Amino acid sequence: ENSETHYKNVALRHMPANLQILQQDKTAPK
Amino acid sequence: MFCEKVLELIRELKRSLDGTLLPFNEDGVRQVLEEMKALYDQNQTDVSATVEGERGLFSGVQFRHTCLERNKRCLLAYLFNRLAIIRNMRWEFGSVLPADVRQNLSEQEVQWFTKYNKSLASYMRSLGNDGLDLTQDRKPPKS
Amino acid sequence: DNYFNLEDILSSQEKVPVKTELPMFRLGFLNSSSDNEHILPGTKMELPFWLATGLCSRKRKIVSVEMPKFYRAGYREIFTADANVVDLHKLGPYFYSFGTKLLCFELNESDDVAKSLLQTFIDRFRRIMDNSQNALNQETSKLTDKLDEMERSLFRASQQSLFDFQKWETR
């Protein structure tokens, strides 16, 4: 949660609207 | 060529993976976000034109969308890997980072570190009867 | 693939040869060998892997991909003859990682490339292991010069475990 908040505040919320979501299935380490 | 700036951030981070942490590249991150906005705005224009009947713009739209996804991935990877280094430093240096390390963190990274400290401390207090400092004695004794 | 992995991101920056299937208006800057503003169908050029993947979806193929030179039959024969003499860093430097990524395009040669990647790794592994375990206090750059990035990280991991064992023995 801490990390996601960080990504949102630093980067995601400044991106175009359709790119602001962090997709868990794509970003979870394999 | 697009996505060059974000690649510079990745290369810069890769070079510093020997344990040192370079200063947070705020300028670099800002430039990447600006590039993303420009790509997105151009795509909006082309999509509107396509709806109005203009043909042949699909390649451009797809190209810019791919660049946007690439920028997003690389930017998030830059942030993720910096947090990973900072997290390791907590286990190595303790809850107070050396001044020369701390000065290379952005304000948001300092906030992240503070919250991470609290989470870790809270978890360690919950272990056993009196808590357990997991960051001590990480190597087994000689015996 | 690991979304946040730096090696993965860098290996996807390697170039692949492509041929355009649809016109690409106002994207002429992608073709370094031409000054045209637009790219016509049938144009051959090189694009980074990540971009070629984005333009090569099953739904609408803007470009089609060809196998890069170092993974084709001619080079595969060299690897079969003696994989140890090849400078994979010069061909790479993410030879295995990039080669594995190419398999997603399902080209005719993909099966052969997959087998070649595996066999090349097997043929070179023994020497990497021996060198890393027997080069404790000496300059290692000559031993790692021709290794690709994955092999170099294996070499480092092997050396690290040797140092750790020594430290444990003399603790």
In short:
Chain A is an all-alpha fold and 30 residues long. Chain A is 43% helix and 0% strand. Chain A starts with a helix and ends with a helix.
How does this model look, in words?
The complex is a heterotrimer of chains A (30), B (143) and C (171). Chain A has 30 residues and is mainly alpha-helical. Chain A is flat and about 25 Å long. In chain A, 43% of the residues lie in helices and 0% in strands. Chain A is built from 2 helices and no strands. Chain A starts with a helix and ends with a helix. Chain B is mostly helical and 143 residues long. In chain B, α1 runs antiparallel to α2, α1 packs parallel to α3 and α2 packs antiparallel against α3. Chain B is elongated. The longest helix of chain B is centred in the middle third of the chain and has 36 residues. Chain C is mainly alpha-helical. Chain C is 49% helix and 8% strand. Chain C has a 3-stranded antiparallel sheet. Chains in contact: A-B, A-C, B-C. At the B-C interface, α1 and α3 of B face α1 and α2 of C.
Structural class of chain C: mainly alpha
Rough shape of chain A?
flat
**Most residues in contact, chain pair and counts:** B-C, 26 and 23 residues
**Count of DSSP helices of chain C?**
8
Bin the helical content of chain A. Answer: 40-55%
Number-wise, the strands of chain A total 0
Distance from first to last alpha carbon of chain C: 40 Å
Estimate the strand proportion of chain C.
Answer: 5-15%
Give me the Rg of chain C, rounded: 20 Å
Q: On the 0-100 scale, what is the average pLDDT of chain A?
A: 91
Shape of chain C: elongated
Strands of the widest sheet of chain C, in order across it, are 2-1-3
